[in-house]
Amino acid sequence: MGDDSTISPKDRFLTVYGRKPVLEALADDGLRVDKVILADTARGPGATEIQRAAKAAGVQVQRASAHRVKVLAGNGKQDQGVLADVVAPRMRSLAAALADRRPPSRVLLLDGITTPANVGMILRTATAAGLDGVIVPRRGVAALDPLVVKASAGVAFRAPVLRCGSAREAAEMLTEAGYGLYALGASARTTVFDVDLPQRAAFVLGGETAGVGAEVGELVTDWVSIPMPGDVESLNVSAAAAVLSFELVRRAR
C-alpha cells in the first residue's frame, strides 16, 4: 500500500487565515511565507496593511474571489478575506520519509484526534522531545489550521509532520516497512515504561472518545498503557503523548 508520491501543496505549507495571523507570519523572520491570497472584496486599511507587510517581506500577493479564499481557508467564518501559505520545512509525505536513506526510528501516528488543541499540543511536545515524526493523516484528524498552530505556540510550523491519506494507510505502510506498531490503551498489561521496542517503532494515539480505531487496531503489534496508581480512568491524549514522548527521551539517554 503506497502513498501517492506527488507532493501536494498540503504537504509543504501550513495555511493561516485572518488578518492578525497573516500579519504575524509575515513579520516573523524565522518563517518563510510562500504567498498571500487576498479576497478581491478586501479593501480599506486592513487590506492595505497586509499588502504593505507582504511587500516588505518580499512575498507575492494574489487576488481571488471571497468564495475562493473561504474554500482555501476551509473556515468561512474567520478567514477575514485573507490567508497565507507558510512553508513548513520539516513537513513531508510519509512515503518520502520511509523511502529515506535513514528512515525515522520513532514516530507517533494520530488516529481520529479531532480537537485542534490536542493536535497542536502533541506537535509541540513531540518536537520538544526530538521525535523523528508525527504522522497526521489528511482524513479523520483535525486539519492543520490556525487553531492547531495556536495550540502548538507556533511550533507546528517547524514540527516533523508526516502526511498520508488515512491512519489505516499509515499503519499498512509502517508495517510493510518493518516498524513495530504500538497502540496506547488503558487496559493493556504492558506499559510504556517496560515494553521492549524494536529499532523502528510507531505509536498510535487514538481519538478523544473512541480511542484507536478498529481498522488500525487490527494491525497493532502490541498494546501499551500508562500506569496510573491514582483513581483516574484515562489521560487527555496530549498528556499521554507527552508521557510517551519523554519516556522515549529517557530511553535514548
TrEMBL record:
One Pfam entry name = SpoU_sub_bind
Q: Name one GO cellular component term.
A: cytosol
Question: Is Zinc tagged as a keyword?
Answer: no
Residue ranges of the RNA 2-O ribose methyltransferase substrate binding domain?
Answer: 15-92
Top-level taxon of the source organism: Bacteria
User: What's an example Gene Ontology biological process for this entry?
Assistant: RNA processing
The molecular function terms in GO held by this entry are:
RNA binding; RNA methyltransferase activity
UniProt KW keywords: Methyltransferase, Transferase
Residues of the signal sequence? none
The UniProt entry, under InterPro entries, shows: Alpha/beta_knot_MTases (IPR029028), Ribosomal_eL30-like_sf (IPR029064), rRNA_MeTrfase_TrmH (IPR004441), SpoU_MeTrfase (IPR001537), SpoU_subst-bd (IPR013123), tRNA_m1G_MTases_N (IPR029026)
PANTHER family per UniProt: 23S RRNA (GUANOSINE-2'-O-)-METHYLTRANSFERASE RLMB (PTHR46429:SF1)
| Family that this chain belongs to | Belongs to the class IV-like SAM-binding methyltransferase superfamily. RNA methyltransferase TrmH family.
Give the protein's recorded name. Answer: RNA methyltransferase
Whose protein is this, by species?
Amycolatopsis iheyensis
Q: Which lineage ranks, top first, belong to the organism behind this chain?
A: Bacteria, Bacillati, Actinomycetota, Actinomycetes, Pseudonocardiales
